[in-house]
Each structure stands twice: as structure tokens, then as C-alpha cells.
């Protein structure tokens, strides 16, 4: 997918003014956030599981080459194939080659963020293979020809009306005036239409939440059952995943599974967790005859051992996204690439370059909620700060920002001057804003006051002043 | 250089080391034979009768329906009465593993044994285990239990013996390891019927997989 992360600021402004989007985002709070809270509350062992998950994944990353080789050997022993892809282009070509070798015209797809990352659909279409997304959210955005706006709820930016519109256009086989006002009606129609695709597809592509070195199995976690129909019915099953997703044993996978659904949707467990190992066995009555795993690197191996190493523990649960006030205000499309929210702001610069994604690390208040909910205890705010530091080092910010930062840095290193300046500023703002307690507009600070008020200082004395005179609690 | 070589070299380079020495590799490989379960929830370690109660309660919480019969011989009749109560078709596709049930005892049921076809409205399968922790069924694929039965029909009826109910997931892996069955083509963990929240975060059952999951617990072995 072609990134528009460099346009983050304009994207974000547009998103803030988009009423439909704002309405859709309002559901985040009562939905995912509240449900996660309840699920975590119900499991006293949750914090211990987070520690275990973090430690397990750290061990894997320190021995990643070894576990990948073990996994590969198991897959091969079971009659499957493993393909290694250095970058997006190589991965796309591998998938297309498999499609061609098996004469596949129509492929069904389970939800895969790696497929989004490598822009698989557009590439397949260009080369004469028709991809059909089968996850309801992915199907909807495929019809609308737009990217996902969330890693587990790709159509979260839409409402029923949008979906109905897309269906009327895409399903001419039904009467145009059929009732589509309810979510149930929309779902039933999608179920009927996609059944056809499941049964006729030549090849099925899924992602993988994990790979298990012990058994050579890949795992998908879904609620709809689309991933299972995608991988069970066609002749060929292709698993498209990335190198950091391997874990040693079934028990290690289980630790992650206990964390995943609770952190993601607030479910105790997802409806379907499926382990797939190799093609159908000699005596089996169903299942694919071919099983391929494509292992994508695409910049991940370079993240190991560096400042963003910990990000490779990510299990793509989206808890950080669901709890991010910035994401909650602008949605996922504004981030301009595949991974939004805090995890995306860390990952995107690492995968497509800081030049393209330079605004993303700044799209955070560093409030720390993301780290507080991350099941793998990934220090997201620290990594965002790290990117900001690199931006400064590499002169990626506009001159005005650099000048302001330099000026500020000089000022805070001269305490007396700093105090005089802040005292004067506080006194002036306090006086000017006394009546209303806030400013709705302010010269030079339009970027702030256009979308929110600036609170006026309540006391006429600043923090330092209060601290010095002992008015502290 | 092949892609595999280059990726492995890049991993090693970033980690600041070469390939692991054979002794370390052997050690790590050996460790796979002693899997370590971290933080198994206390709710998975109840005594067996309570586990069964928890299993049934969690199934219901996950929007499955449950029934309990005293012996295997009563399963066909229980299926017939469930289908009648829900006004559902009586045409069944049944896992070959359950061929030995006394199907003649429920003459209204029309049975076929094998994998599911898109036209099959109701499937009946055995399970490998049931996990009390979350009301999760574990099914292993094989000629006796084809995977399509778990996903294609609108209604999935799963038959579980009381002795197959365990506390936590790890107990299932341990059992499968002993049986040498840890790696069938598919292990399916199924928790309630298919669902989606993709339209306005409204949870709806019956997305692409079964609209209904009905669990029949059999108290006594054999029969
Ligand atoms: S960074 Fe943490 S919270 Fe965010 S998606 Fe990854 S694992 Fe989940």
C-alpha cells in the first residue's frame, strides 16, 4: 500500500472534521476499552501472564534464527513448503508464483496485516488473480477500495449506512430496495455472497498470529470462522506471516492466547483458534493438498538488538490503539499506512523510513496509556521519544520547529531567565484569561486553539513559585 | 545468496553473534521436550465435578447451548429433541468417529457419515477435549473427524464425554502429546458459535461459521 504518512497533519485535520468518523470512533470507549477492563479484572493471573509473555518473547527474539530453522524443519517434515521473503516485493512474487503454479484464478483471504503491509491485493489483481477478502470488515473495505483503519476492526471508521451503500453497489443480484438498515441484514447478505467464494476459490491465503517451532503449526485466531473456511476448502493454503511470530512450544503459544483476546476485544477467548500443520494427510477427507508458509522479514531483522527491539514482541492485539487518545480523535487512516496508533507510530518509521513517517512519533501525548495496557509490556512511549530524538538528529523537522526547540533548550538551561520568562507569561495569561478561564483563540497558537481551548493559568503564580513557597501537597 | 541465508545472517548480525554453537542448539531443542506452562489460571485447577460445572457455564456464557445425558446411547434422541425444539432440519452429517452411536434409536434423523458439504444444515462431531477455563472445545482433524464439519453447517452439535473435560489448555496438550496426536493437520479450539463485531461493534452471531453451537455432555463412558 502506498503510504501517505508524510501528509499526517493534513490527514488528521480532515479526520477531526469528519462527523461520520467521529461518530464511529465514539464506540471505541464503550466497546473495546470497557470490555478489556472487565476481562482483565476477571483473570487475577493477568499481570503474571504479561510478565511470562514478555519473557518468553524476549527469549525467542534472542534465538530467533534458531527457532525459525526449527519451525521450517517441522513444516518440511510434514510435507509443507516454507518460503523466505526479504522484502515486500519478494513476498508478493512468491505468493503470485504459488497462485500461478496451481492455476489459481480466485483466492479467498483471511485477515492478514502482513498482506496489507506488502500490498498484496493490488498486486494480485494487476496480475490476473482475483483476491476476495472474507473477514466481514476486510470485505467491506475491499468493496469501498480503502485500507483498513484498525488492525483488528478494519472497518471501524464506518457506520451501517456506509456498509449498506457498498452492498447495494456490489451485489446487483439482489433487489435494490431490499431492507439493509440493520447490521443483521447486512451480515446475512455478506454471509450468503461469501459462501459462494469460499466454495469456488482455488487457493486460500491467511495470516498467522503465531508459528510453533515444536510442531510446525501456524495459528490463526478469529471470530467469524472465515479464516477456517478460507484455509480448509481450497486446494492450496498459503500462510503469509512475518519472522518475529514464532514461539517455541504449544505452552508458550497458550500464554499468548490467554492474553490476546482479552487485550484485543475483551473476550475470554476468541471463537476460533486454529492450529494448522502441513497439507491434508493421506487418510483425511478434507483440507488443502498444499500448505505453504511465507516468512516475511521486511526490515524486522534490522530492528533486533537496537532501540526498537522490544517492538518485535508485539502480538497485534490493538489494545494500545484502542486506548490511545490520539487514535480516538483521528482514527486510523490519518496515520497513512497499515499500522495506526502507538504501535504503528513506532513500527511505521522502522519499516518504511523515518523520512516518510516523521510526523507519526509526534502524534502522541506520551500519556503512557498504551504501555499500561500492552500485554507484552512494550515501552511504546520510550520508543516514540527515541524516534523524536532521531528526527532532531537527522534534521527532519521544519526549521521553525528546530529553532523553537533550540531556543527552549537554551532557555531551560538558564534557570533565572527561565523563571522570569514563565512568571511574566503566567501573569499575563492569567490576567487576560481571568474572566473565561480559557482561550478560544490565540495568535501564533492557532494549531492548538482551532480544535480545542487553551486553559488559562488559574493562579497567577507558576509551578516553580508555588513549589518554592511550600504550597504543595 | 538465498533469501533464507540473508535473513538468518541479518538476524545474527543484529544480535551481534554468529550461528548458535551446536551445544546451545541441542540444549534449546531439548528444552522443547519439557514445555513450561506459565501462570495457569487458578480457575483451571478446580476439582473435576466443579470443572464440569464451570465448563458448562462458560459454554453458555459464550453463547453455546448445552445439554447433559447419562449415557452415549441417549445422544441420538437428545439430538432429535434439540433439533425439534429449535425447528431445525433433521438431516445430519456426522463425523465417522460417531458411526457406532445407536442412530436407529432416533428414526426421524437422516444421517450421513463423512466430511461436510455446503448443503449440509447440521453436523455432529466428537471432540478431543473440553476446557473449563473458557468453555472451549478442542477438536483434532483426521479421517474420523473432518474439519469441514466444524465450520460449514449452520448448526454444529458437539458430543463430549465428561472425562474429556479438563481445567486448562495445557492439560489438553499434555494428553495429545502422550497419544502422539499433537500434530494433526488441524487442531480447532472452538469457543461458542461464529460471530462478528465488524459493523458498529455490534456483536452478531453466525458470521461465516455455524450460527449455533450445541454441546451434549455425556456423563458415562461407553454405551
Ligand atoms: S504494541 Fe502491545 S498493545 Fe499494541 S498491538 Fe502490540 S502487543 Fe498489542
Question: Keyphrases for this structure?
Answer:
heterodimer; A: 473 residues; alpha/beta; Rossmann fold; six-stranded parallel β-sheet; B: 223 residues; 2 domains; four-stranded mixed β-sheet; 26% helix; binds iron/sulfur cluster
How would you sum up this structure, described in words?
Chain A has about 475 residues and is of the alpha/beta class. Among the domains of chain A are: about 260 residues, 3-Layer(aba) Sandwich (Rossmann fold), CATH 3.40.50.10420; about 70 residues, no CATH class. Chain A has 23 helices and twelve strands. In chain A, the strands form three sheets. In chain A, strands 1-10-7-4-2-3 form a six-stranded parallel β-sheet, with helices on both faces. In chain A, β5 and β6 form a beta hairpin. In chain A, α4 crosses α13 and α10 crosses α11. The relative contact order of chain A is 0.13. By secondary structure, chain B is an alpha/beta fold. Chain B has two domains: about 40 residues, no CATH class; about 180 residues, Rossmann fold (3-Layer(aba) Sandwich), CATH 3.40.50. Chain B is about 25% helix and about 25% strand. In chain B, β10 and β11 form a beta hairpin. In chain B, about 50% of the residues are buried. The mean pLDDT of chain B is about 95. Classes of the chains: A alpha/beta (about 475), B alpha/beta (about 220). The complex binds iron/sulfur cluster. The site of iron/sulfur cluster has 13 residues of chain A, from α15.
Number of strands of chain B: 12
Largest sheet of chain A: 6 strands, parallel
Taking the sheet with the most strands of chain B, its summary is:
6 strands, parallel
CATH superfamily of the largest domain in chain B: NagB/RpiA/CoA transferase-like
Can you tell me the overall shape of chain A?
globular
Q: Give the CA-CA distance, first to last residue of chain A.
A: 52 Å
**Helix/strand class of chain A:** alpha/beta
Q: Rough shape of chain B?
A: elongated
How are the strands of the biggest sheet of chain A laid out side by side?
1-10-7-4-2-3
Q: What helical percentage do the residues of chain A reach?
A: 40-55%
Tell me the number of strands of chain A.
12
Give the strand content of chain A. 5-15%
Structural class of chain B: alpha/beta
Which architecture name of the largest domain in chain B does CATH use?
3-Layer(aba) Sandwich
Q: Quick one: CATH superfamily of the domain at 43-300 in chain A?
A: NagB/RpiA/CoA transferase-like
- The tally of helices of chain B reads 5
